[in-house]
Amino acid sequence: MKLDCKVIALTYPSGKIMKSRITELQTAQVADLDEKRWAAVQARDASADADFVYAVKTTGIYCRPSSSARLPNRKNVEFFSTVADAEAAGYRASKRASGDRTAAAAHRTAVVAEACRLIENAENQPNLEELALKADMSMFHFHRVFKAETGLTPKAYASASRARRLRGELGETKTITDAFYGAGFNSNSRFYEASAGLLGMTPRDYKEGGQNSEIRFAIGQCSLGAILVARSQLGICAILLGDDPEALVRDLQDMFRKASLIGGDSSFEQLMAQVVGFIEAPALGLNLPLDVRGTAFQERVWQALSKIPVGATASYAEIAATIGSPKAVRAVAQACGANRIAVAIPCHRVVRRDGDISGYRWGVERKRDLLRREAEL
User: Which of 116, 237, 336, 347 is catalytic?
Assistant: First the structure.
């Protein structure tokens, strides 16, 4: 295995100018988000129920966007990402809430669960029209309901499901041909067209542990300590944090056992600077492609994590409920632990039900520091 590592020391500008700029951006982002949320409330959009609740200052109650309650005056409304946030602010649930939720919510969950089973078990992946017809919904409505329940679009869910099956088949079967038939592909051409996008490399290279694939990486310094950023041909595949740069390289080697690890050049240093800047100021966002490789369930969890706003937190139970699997709290915690793209997939924003900070792959102190920093923005 080729290993050419270069340590890059990077810093990020700080001070009143940067803080002012971040505040301006945050204010604009919050205003835009609130207008979108108010539009969902006016439309009584059930597909937005998993995303936020709105509270009415004059009555002291909070509701889901689809609530049948009379629409309040806009100036009396404020929004919260979670029920816990609304209750922490002193609001109580609307008495209409349970009646609004029960039958409709149960029906939506059942419809989406059936669609997931169809996607996972079908030899030929059903398209959106077929899934919507089976659910007795329009394609547009089904697409919105499915994404609200799972955190993924039907197409993304199907891709994650097929990728999981393909990885499993490549690990268990003796030949590539056996693998593509086992994963539900019915022709060589369709298999090879899709496999690079699903695996990030050729099927044979994946079966050989990433042999012949290239992962470019660099190591730098940020306020959280050492940081390693790695990129595959699909996008950023790892952001690792720690105290020992050599240990981070070993972690990367374990992830991509037979890939060629190549130290980044000057253009990679620019990407590294973007990531370090994002770590220091998460509110600015990270407009870079991510190479996210997980099971369908893990990707649902990671999508839900990405919706937690900067400065907010959610419990493992709330994430489980958001993705339509309220009993899968332990599985949600395991998915958080499996995340290898720190901060960009913000598993640090997930806490225990009582608000206490739980474990973190890169250390509880880093998690506490990230949350403290985001709360001050």
Answer: 347
Catalytic position from the list 63, 222, 237, 336: 63
Is residue 246 situated within a structural domain? no
Has residue 234 been placed in a domain?
Answer: no
Give the number of domains in the chain: 3
- Of the residues 158, 174, 209, which one is the last residue of a structural domain? 209
Asked if the model's pLDDT at residue 245 lies above 70, the reply is yes
Question: Does 347 qualify as catalytic in the annotation?
Answer: yes
Whose CA is closest to 67, among 95, 32, 87, 39? 95
- Per-residue DSSP letters for 231-281? E-SSSEEEEEEES-HHHHHHHHHHHSTTSEEEE--HHHHHHHHHHHHHHH-
pLDDT over 90, % of the chain: 16
Same domain, yes or no: 82 and 25: yes
Residue 194 has pLDDT above 60, yes or no: no
Is 336 considered catalytic here? no
CATH assignment of the domain containing 50: 3.40.10.10
**pLDDT tens-digit profile of 302-324?**
888 988 888 889 999 889 888 87
